[in-house]
Amino acid sequence: MITKRIIPCLDIKDGRVVKGTNFKGLNDVSSPIELARLYSDSLADELVFYDITASYEGRQLFTDILTKVASEIFIPLTVGGGINTVEDFDRVLKCGADKVSVNSGAIKNPSLIKEAAHKYGDQCVVLSVDIKRVDGAFHVFAKGGREDTGIEAINWIKQGVANGAGEIVVNSIDTDGVKQGFDIELLKLVCDAVNVPVIASGGAGNIQHFIDLFKEIPDIDAGLAASIFHFGEVAIPDLKKELKNNNIIVRL
Amino acid sequence: MIAIIDYGVGNLFSLISSFEKIGAEIVVTADPQVISSADGIILPGVGAFSDAAKKLRDSGLDKVIIEQAKSGKKLMGICLGMQMLFEKSFEYGVHNGLGLLKGNIVPMKDKIPKNLKIPHIGWNALHFTCESNLFKYINPNDCVYFVHSFYATDCDDSVIATAEYGKELTAAVQKDNIIGCQFHPEKSGEVGLNILRAFCEME
Lengths: 252, 203
Hints:
The complex is a heterodimer of chains A (about 250) and B (about 200).
Chain A: E1 5-13, E2 16-21, E3 24-30, H1 32-41, E4 47-51, H2 56-72, E5 77-80, H3 86-94, E6 99-102, H4 104-108, H5 112-120, E7 125-134, E8 137-142, E9 147-152, H6 153-163, E10 167-172, H7 184-193, E11 198-201, H8 207-216, E12 222-225, H9 227-230, H10 236-245
Parallel strand pairs in A: 1-4, 1-12, 4-5, 5-6, 6-7, 7-10, 10-11, 11-12
Antiparallel strand pairs in A: 1-2, 2-3, 7-8, 8-9
Helix pairs in contact in A: 1-2
Chain B: E1 2-5, H1 13-21, E2 26-29, H2 32-37, E3 40-43, H3 49-59, H4 61-70, E4 74-78, H5 80-83, E5 88-89, E6 95-96, E7 104-107, E8 120-125, E9 127-128, E10 143-148, E11 150-153, E12 159-164, E13 168-175, E14 178-181, H6 189-201
Parallel strand pairs in B: 1-2, 1-3, 3-4, 4-14, 5-7
Antiparallel strand pairs in B: 5-6, 7-11, 8-10, 9-12, 12-13, 13-14
């Protein structure tokens, strides 16, 4: 059977890995290449690199880092951040990315997913969505979680899949950084709505949270986290062993 | 020297890097003479079968690959490159492959339980169905990385490994010097590198 994936996410700014709490107040953690190597050696199934730099120089630094990572780490790499055009897809795929994640870019340019899926295939296009509860409804947020677009999240995701998104990353702003577990309610809704892989993000604080995720939502494909891995609070080999002990199929 | 065939299908970055990592000498080429003088051939590929088959035919590389494979040179097709080794594909129509291996490429849809997602994407365990020197550095149930929506069928005489996804899907094939991997060894960590290493060491 296909294994459940564990995915560390590396937010990169000015060539360094950072991680915020509730997307604000960033801390410098470590070198992206060192960290990527460590994760690959410790059985991470995939890596996500998120470019949170705005400047041209920062962007150049990011692609240099990506190229270096892709030349020595042989697991799937997903790249996101600042992906607004098909040319942006091209830029990161040339550096060795396997999948490209779009977020605000798809909100600004609704045809981006369709164009990219047509050119590179559905499997290459990941729709990443920042979601927050607003008056009892799930809203899509833009600009790194700062701006309420008013768009209803489940419909937005369904539409993205219809346009060719081959995978969905669901970031719950409500649970992100709080370390009280993944947003099971929201993730269940997304899994019921689409038939492409769904990656859970936001809220993991310990190993039990991953066990709960995979037990409560058998259709979820992967769990993504950042700080608990970066700060060594959860070691991926320990996490995978515990998942296996709980009859969840993982790569060991 | 291993020739990686460059026929404008997909991104070769990871494939090139992985051969460099294991210290293999490679050349990325579409030149028939270079391909003919190489010790082995890699046929990569992602995307649509019909596009890739057309590109191979239009460039005349199909004939070069067939001739080299029939002369006994080791050849490995990866992902879509593996699917191209077979007779026919039923991916959006009917298209001819290189016909080096017996069998056809068919959609997973309707052949696997409806609750399973398509494409088959992620890490899955290899089940060896017969012995192969391709696996000399890896173990049964080692996981490799798959991304595909179509699979090879009617190819019992060449299957060397399967992966379970609602049913046992063809994961790797070999008929003498002709080899195919449905998964991506260049994205399968140490296990994948060890498969490429074994290929490089084959006579």
